[in-house]
Amino acid sequence: MPRKAFVADLSEAVANFERNNVLNLRAGKEDGMINFDYQIDDGGTTEVTALIPDLGEYPGSHMYIIYTDSENVPPTVHSALDAMSNCEGLKVTDMLSKVVKSIDKATSGSRHNPVDVDEPDPMEIGFR
Question: pTM for this one?
Answer without folding.
Answer: 0.81
